[in-house]
Amino acid sequence: MTARYASALFDLALSEKKIPVVEKDLKRFDDLLNGSEDLKRLVVSPVFSSDDQSKAIDALLTKAKITGLVGNFIRVVAGNRRLFAMQDMLSAYRKLVADHKGETTADVTVAKALTAAQTKDLKAALKSVVGKEVAINATVDPSILGGMIVKVGSKQIDTSLKTRLSSLKLALKEVG
Question: pTM to 2 decimals?
Answer without folding.
Answer: 0.67
